[in-house]
Amino acid sequence: MSKDALLRVKADALGIQAEDFLSDHVAQFYNIYKGYSEEWMDSDTMDRLFKKRYLSFKEAGTESLNPNHFCVFRDLTNPSRSALAMTDQKAQKLDLFLGDFEGIWGVRPRNVQQRMAIELLLRKDIPLVTLVGKAGTGKTLLSLACGMYLTEDMHEYKKLLVTRPVVPVGKDIGYLPGEKDEKLRPWMQPIFDNLEFLFNTNKTTELEDILAGMSTVQVEALTYIRGRSIPEQYIIIDEAQNLTKHEVKTIITRVGEGSKIVLMGDPKQIDHPYLDEYTNGLSYVVERMKHLDISGHMKFEKGERSGLAQLAADLL
User: Fold this and answer.
1) What's the CA gap between 297 and 99, in Å, rounded?
2) pTM value?
3) Which residues are 235's β-sheet partners?
4) Domains in the chain and their CATH numbers?
């Protein structure tokens, strides 16, 4: 019994029976909770939804759903007509959800999953949000835009804390020179790339000057989170699929009063040697917390980075 895939392959080559630990497995990526469902509805019921602005599960013809779950209803007689609804936090009814949105910080949703994710990211009464999707679906950019809006524009939170696990892709290049901030820069470069887009800057020094002047945006490493208490902050954990269940528990238990935490990642792109899509911390949180009224989840389906990125995510 081993978590080491290479060791199991070697054992198989030598004729030794080898298995992974099955007790810590959660849902496979393709079967993971999506956070939304697509349903068909007759015209009269859809008219009633638009008129009353809410429906019971029985009226909508759906089974009981998790809190903060979205439903995309399509008209049986006219498939081009649709309605978007969201369950309330007590999971007792479906409220009509209006998808009209002007965008924030220059970012507009390009598909319905992104619009639903923005709703979860902006809701202060949903302090735990998980986002799952392939590379290029907009998870990091949307989270940063919503975090900047709530922190800088609305002053709902005192700080925006952004972090990601320090797990290399391929072989590690070894120790990095400089002080802590200089060491962290290569690891956090994907975060800075998205911030450069939001601030519309072309030079690295421009972004550094902006962040130094704002003092509300903090980019940290997860290494030093043990023992901390983080109140009244908007916390973004990128690449959370590289976290173990123990590490995810440690991180979420750091969240203080009035804070909101967003975990995101792609369970199909795991660099940690002893994790896979069945055992990573992100999938674990999604499946264990989906029934709670304080949590919301969205699984992105469509990539928006580029056509090539979408094809690579689907085919490779």
Assistant:
1) 17
2) 0.85
3) 161, 261
4) 110-315 (3.40.50.300)
Residue with tokens 């439903």: 71
Query: What size, in residues, is the chain?
Result: 316
Nearest alpha-carbon partner for 159 in 89, 211, 103: 211
Tell me how far apart the alpha carbons of residues 256 and 253 are, in angstroms, rounded to a whole number.
8
4, amino acid identity = D
- The residue whose two tokens read 């400089």 is 178
Q: What is the pLDDT along the chain (316 residues), one digit of tens a residue?
A: 887 878 888 999 999 999 887 666 676 666 788 999 999 999 999 999 999 999 999 888 888 899 999 999 999 988 889 999 999 988 889 999 876 777 888 888 988 999 999 999 999 999 999 999 988 888 999 999 999 999 999 999 999 999 888 766 656 666 667 766 676 766 677 888 888 888 888 776 787 778 777 778 888 877 777 778 899 999 999 999 989 888 899 999 999 999 999 999 998 888 887 788 888 899 999 989 999 999 999 999 887 777 787 777 777 7
Q: What is the largest CA-CA distance in the chain?
A: 68
C-alpha 265: how far from its chain's center?
6
CB 197 within 8 A of CB 146: no
Closest to 165 in 3D by CA, of 86, 280, 74, 65: 280
Task: Tell the residue number behind the tokens 């003092």, with chain if given.
Answer: 215
